User: Fold these one by one.
Assistant:
Number 1:
Amino acid sequence: MVKIRIGIIGMGRMGITHFSIINTHQQAEIVSVADTSKTTLDILKKFIPSIQIFKDFHELIDISKPDAIIVCTPSNLHYPVIKYAFKNGVHVFCEKPFTANKLEAQELANLYSNSSLVNQVGFANRYSDVFNTAKSIMDQGVIGDIIRFKSEMFSCSITKKTNGDGWRDKKENGGGAVFEMASHLIDLNNYLFGISNGVTGTILNSVYSKNVEDIVSTTLLYKNGLSGTMYVNWSDESYRKPMIIIEAFGDKGKIIADFYGYKVFLKEENKELKLRKGWSVFTLPNVNKPVPFYVRGNEFTRQLYHFVDMIGNKDVKSVCDFNDASKTQVIIDDIFVDAEQNKI
Amino acid sequence: MEKIDKIVFGDNQFFGINHMSQEKAQQLSEQFFDIKNIYRVYDIAIENGIEAIMLNSNQRASEICEYFKQNKSKYGDLNWYPSIPYPHKYANMVAEKGIFPAISEVLFSNNTAGGVLGMLAKGGTALISKDTIKMMQMLVDVEVKMFKGLKINTIFLQNVITDLLLGYGIKEIFEEYCEYIRKKYHVSPGLITLNLPYCLEKLKEWNIKDVVVCSSINKIGFTMSPSTLAYEEVILNNDSSVYQLMAMSTLASGAIPPKEAYDYINEQNIQSVVFGASSEKHIAETIELIKL
């Protein structure tokens, strides 16, 4: 069996996780790693001597000649890395958020969609058991036509005053709650409800960060009449772990889904799906499907295995390609523009 | 290898950790905001026959350890099963600063610049694997410190860390961890994993023996990767004199009724169960149902 040769660029928190996951895939082989930390590279090389290490991503692509790369650098570097990968015919899995702005995102999406190269962005919630089950219920019209939705995301990522020096405190590096956290929720809303056509009423607040926002709220508008709200707070210490909560209201009922499971309220019984009139509750163990190797969450394994499977088999369809991610990027840009206009 | 206790009392319920719902987690976190309520549940558990406790080295654990040390005459010799580290402590730091500066901050909280990086750089690349092992040992010491003075049976590596490291497939790290736990603390090394078949396969391949392995084991396959079938096979064929197995998540976060859950567990080749509960009824019922 010829293995798919993979290079990882950026060994921060996500790079470390992706390495572990993809290293267990039978068809994948990690051949090289690039990072700016010499210590990280030296340690990896010492324990895994077969790996080639680089301080520069160009060299990783030129010398180790991977079939595919996993890009986990700060997001302002995604654009140059991916352009270089494209020139060299390399498949790309890129961490979220996709790029620093919509123009870069659209350019990369155009490049890759006109090629046969596999391209994916790490919006992992598209691989969540709960949200996929919720999507399937909504797509089957179980709660009828959806009129409004409410989406929220919380974490305790930033809980201390910052001095403005870290990458998380710089918008141009992909820092801030919009880029780092709300991008997840925007993408999930796109996935569940379709691409929104505009935003309104955006407010950005700082709690601790010096240069960027810690809280984001906005309303997403759709041409078909649907609308939904989004509230994201990454300085909320009442949440031990990150949490997403989606609530959709339709003319036949409603659904509430979060990382713990989902519940459906129906005006009339749905016999086909065995959902009764009133509330039906399903917890995570009811919907959870095991993955081949678990690290930090089913969705992380599923998305990376899917990436490798797409490279190995052209018939495997993409779930979150550059095109999808560039649509999320458009909304991110709109949010910043709208927030600027709402300042009084 | 020292035998592990058949029933171990866990701690998730005390720290607002619940996979059933956000409301339930919040309710638990309110109930146990006052640490006296935690001690009250321990008292109930011990009155009902519990002799062993698993406790994760999170922020509240050191206070709990201190309490048990100070009340030794009341509690006698309980067997402790620490699990280290509390991964969320590291998660944000790693995202913010990178892995080694984050570790450095934990080990040398007053000296963020030098610390680990200085230590690793000093030896140069020739010594880097030795220094990395030394750093791992220092991290273990930081986490285990609070349990000193308690009678420890097994020191477990928490599942986020075990599984992350398993993916890298580096034999030396596991070998050194197990060796260090044995030599320094004179107790059994333990690994918590959500990938039991993979973990046991690797341990055998690396010839690392006498390890306690704790994993989610339940009838419906919740957090059992890659599959229930693979679990049942490795459990059936496991030699418990080499790898003692401890089951956690036996009720799959409440998705399986206790009787049904333990009818399944009791049939498996498992040496121990760790469970958490906060009411006397559930504690007594679970102890009654576990028949290993």
Number 2:
Amino acid sequence: MDTFEILSQLCSAAGVSGAEGSAAEAAAKLLEEYGEVTLDNALGSVICKVGSWADGKPVMLLDAHIDEIGMIVTYITEDGFLKISGCGGLDTRLLLAQQVTVYGKEKLTGIVTSTPPHLEKDSSVAPDLDSVFIDIGFTSRENAAKYVSLGDRVLIENKAERLAGSRVTSKAIDDRSGCAAILKTLELLNGQQTAYNIAVCFSTQEEVGERGAKTTAYDISADYAIVVDVSFARTHYESEEECGIMGKGAMIGIAPSLSREMSDSFISLAEEKGIPYQLEVMSGKTGTNADAIGVSGSGTKAVTISIPEKHMHTPVEIVDINDIDNTALLIAEYLKRV
Amino acid sequence: MLDKLKDLCLLDGISGDEGAVREYIIDKIGDKAEIRVDNLGNLIAFCKGKNTPKNKIMVSAHMDEVGMIVTYVNSDGTLKVSSVGGVDPRVVFGRRVKIGRNNVLGVVGGKAIHNLTAEERKKSVPFDKLTIDIGVDSREEALKLVRLGDSVRFVSDFVEYGEGFVKCKAIDDRAGCAIMLRMIEEGVEYDTYFTFVVQEEIGLRGSTCAAFTVAPDYAVVLESTTAADIPSASGEKRVCELGKGPVVSYMDRHTMYDRELYELAFSAAEEKCLPCQTKTMVAGGNDAGAIHVSRGGVKTAAVSLPCRYLHSPSCVINKADFENAYVLTKLILDRTYNK
């Protein structure tokens, strides 16, 4: 399937951390053709054993997270407005007057409260979650509570849309683009046997502390893991040394917490096959599911392969489709090695 | 009227670029009024009534909306913009925008939150630091898609939600335009001038000329005004509230409203049991500021829709207020034609 189409299907589904149901189902549907898919683990991650597993082969886990940044309802005011808390590290600078969807008994439109410039003296202060409410157009707590319960999730919706060239903007590109890259990897493998028993995990609750990956890594008990997440692509006010460059290929992770052996083989493979890549050097842990997977059970050799992304943790994230395709190509070639 | 409001709000027309809105209105009323477009782009519609009134009356609403304009293209292909009209940069950051005649999609973003210092996280991104990414990597590529001076518009859909609320961009002041469209389509008892004006948001410029041209005795300005009826504001800081009827002002930053018309509006509303409110702060301003001092002076009233989150991509009004603003405007006109 066309990469944009896969990404679009994945991004349009809702999956705020801890409430990944719709996104997990969308991903499960796309995974079905590659093997047996299960969703019935305690934390709700999507797990797929690819093809048929043979005895004696090492287990390779391909992981991307299925949850996305969002908000959660914590209180309903007397006049029917909602108070919220973050699920993951939302960029709160963009909250004011933002349209949101409240996933209550039904989907409700809400607007994040804001004071117009006519009345606001200081526009230099960034809003935070404590200073705003969500206006769902109800005038009393009683009426609002018919549709909204505490704990309901809230999302800023933005479906995938194409920008110029091969760029795409959407909510949840972090990390549905990782899921898309893994799906494309499986498409490229096309059922071919590899040296591994391959498991795919689209894990939940990464944004609140890599919890889904922790439990799935335990269940799968992999020998190796490739963790596909997004990383920072350079934007206008960032320096070259801080970020990767969008459109220049997957970012191969090098870090004390990762398997240097895997990082090195990815690099030499990319060189050998002429697949574009960049390096992402981290000095400790990686801030991805690789941290949890690496120390699961008696340990897993893990590497991060990251897709450059702009505006992380906003509803206007940007990714380059070519980067997703090149990430898939790189991982598929890695798995095909003898 | 709500359908027209939807059509009008979804059209793009930042100040100085109101063409699409004007075309739509001309299409709807071209055969129902004598229309002309002046040098600034104001649409002046003269609606012949069954009778000629004693006073020449002008009803006015503005076609333009706030937005931005492309001022520079960085070497990495991102765009710099300035605001057109009063826009809080915080309602621009993290949004989708449409740019120029080709409707190029762009997003407003910056450094990821992860890479900000604790101090930086507390600060909003000011206009001079906002960049728009359209998906290219160089100035050359960008200039194939956009030009300096291109209009930048909010992307915002029209949504009805909650207990009778409506959300869209540009409700300020397409709501006023929609009310005037309805009045023209229904026909008037007495001759009336309707002016759909340009450039309100950058300083009441269209109305300055339209009022000069029409030279009315009385004017009624249809607007949207700042409601802050949200939990973080209390008492007079709420200014006005949705659902409590149209707002008739006694004073704002540009106008001391004609006291007689002000009283007339409230007594008319009371007579017809129509909800009506005033603002509890002297804030904002509208075309009345230019109209009431036109030529030798014009007795002017403003009927405004209380609107939350004004000048953002998510303006919110209440449907009952919208209907009541239409009714109140008619009541005021009826009592003013032969005053």
